[in-house]
Amino acid sequence: MTLPLIPLLPELGNRLAGSPLIIMLDIDGTLAPIAPRPQDAVVPQATRRAVATLASRPGVHVALVSGRGAADARRLVSVGKTWVIGNHGLEVADPQGETEVAPEAEAFHGAMAQASRKIASAVTHVAGVILEDKTWTLSVHYRLADVAVVPRLKAAIDAIAQQHGLRVTEGKGVYELRPPVALDKGTAVLALARRLGGLVPRTSVVFAGDDRTDEDAFRILREHSSEAVTVRVGEAEVPTAAEFRLPDPEAVRRFLEWLVAETR
């Protein structure tokens, strides 16, 4: 059973009082409301301020976890001293901006580029479909498209992915093409949490996300730590592996401001 988070915050104090405190946050749909187009997304100023305050606190690490490329994720949030996991775990950037790309993904650089060209050609004249080329993954957004074109779009993407040995996953109004490697948000947040000294006694980890790709992180964190706080953002009717739920990015802001107060 997934529990509403805000009413339970006083009871979660001990689980979030460890050091280091590692706060991992998805962006689109979590920090920023979902926008019709990726370039239209905006992280509210109050949310950005809370993230920045937390990132500046001693003993606190903040990581942005996104399907966007790492550089784009950092640009959108525009907060210093943060780690960034980009491209669904294929990139990790440290607070100084040094970015590591998973070697397994680099092997598919050519295949991704070829797939991007073919998809761009296929969707050029399809109204409302947007291709977002992130080098290591491709996002085909159809939130603005007529629903009648979606089955044909999916069939075309599946065919291109099969031609180039790639895999397709789905999110909110988006199809994602990725290298067929055993890396995702779950493996990435687990590795970063350990890198930062978390997931051992007297440390705290929290992860919040809103989409299917975030479920990998919910599952793996709960498997490795009974104290990890996992939060699904969005509709209560959607099944989730997260322990807690927040209704929307506005509630995420309130949660982050509560953490700001708790970490003074």
Overview of this structure, please?
A nine-stranded mixed beta sheet has the order 1-13-12-11-2-3-4-5-6, sandwiched between helices. Strands 7-8-10-9 form a four-stranded antiparallel beta sheet, with helices on one face. The relative contact order is 0.19. β5 and β6 (99-101) form a beta hairpin. Helix content is 33%, strand content 22%. It is globular. The longest helix is centred in the middle third of the chain and has 15 residues, at 109-123. The model has no long low-confidence stretch (mean pLDDT 96). It has 264 residues and is of the alpha/beta class. It starts with a strand and ends with a helix. The protein is built from eight helices and 13 strands. It folds into two domains: 3-102 and 183-262, Rossmann fold, CATH 3.40.50.1000; 105-178, Alpha-Beta Plaits (2-Layer Sandwich), CATH 3.30.70.1020.
Q: List the total number of helices.
A: 8
> How many beta strands in the DSSP annotation?
13
N- and C-termini, Cα separation:
32 Å
Poorly predicted residue ranges: none
Order of helices and strands: EEHEHEEEHHEEHEEHEHEEH
CATH class assignment of the largest domain: Alpha Beta
Fraction in beta strands: 15-25%
- Broad structural category: alpha/beta
Name given to the CATH architecture of the largest domain:
3-Layer(aba) Sandwich
**What sort of overall outline do the alpha carbons produce when their principal axes are compared?**
globular
- Overall mean pLDDT: 96
Q: By CATH's scheme, which homologous superfamily of the largest domain applies? A: HAD superfamily/HAD-like
The radius of gyration is 18 Å
The major sheet is characterized as: 9 strands, mixed
- What is the percent of helical residues? 25-40%
* Number of separate structural domains: 2
Widest sheet, order of strands:
1-13-12-11-2-3-4-5-6
CATH topology of the largest domain: Rossmann fold
